[in-house]
Amino acid sequence: MKSSSPWFVAGLVAGTLAGAAAALLYAPSSGRDTIAALRAHFRRASEEAREAGVRAESDILQRYKSIRTASMASAPGATSLAPRVP
């Protein structure tokens, strides 16, 4: 059966509706409780992502400074990382 057939689409819609109805009937908590739990989960995930970003930024800055310090020490007389213009 082709996926563009009207019977396929009708079956897909009917299956989706039946699945949604079953999910609502067998859900362990009410809709409000589920939404509150999802909001709390996404709030925590957002905070954790923000903290991970701050830690990554700090780590990158620290690595940059150590590489810059090492490159300045290995090139005597170098005062800048900018290319020299004759």
Describe the structure in your own words.
- It comes from uncultured Chloroflexota bacterium.
- InterPro entries: YtxH.
- Pfam families: YtxH.
- This is YtxH domain-containing protein.
- The protein has one domain.
- It starts with 5 loop residues before the first helix and ends in a 12-residue tail after the last helix.
- It has 2 helices and no strands.
- 74% of the residues lie in helices and 0% in strands.
- The protein has 86 residues and is an all-alpha fold.
Q: Could you list some keywords that capture this structure?
A:
86 residues, mainly alpha, 2 helices, 0% strand, elongated, YtxH domain-containing protein
List the helices and strands and how they pair.
Elements (H helix, E strand, L loop, with lengths): L5 H20 L5 H44 L12
Instruction: Name the average pLDDT.
Output: 83
Strand proportion? under 5%
Radius of gyration, whole Å:
29 Å
- What is the 3D form? elongated
Structural class: mainly alpha
First and last CA, distance: 73 Å
Question: Which stretches are low in confidence, meaning pLDDT under 50 for 5 or more residues running?
Answer: none
Order of helices and strands: HH
Number of helices: 2
| Helix fraction by DSSP (H/I, runs of at least 4) | over 70%
Largest sheet: none
Got a strand count? Answer: 0
**How many structural units, i.e. domains?**
1
InterPro entries: YtxH
Pfam families: YtxH
Protein name: YtxH domain-containing protein
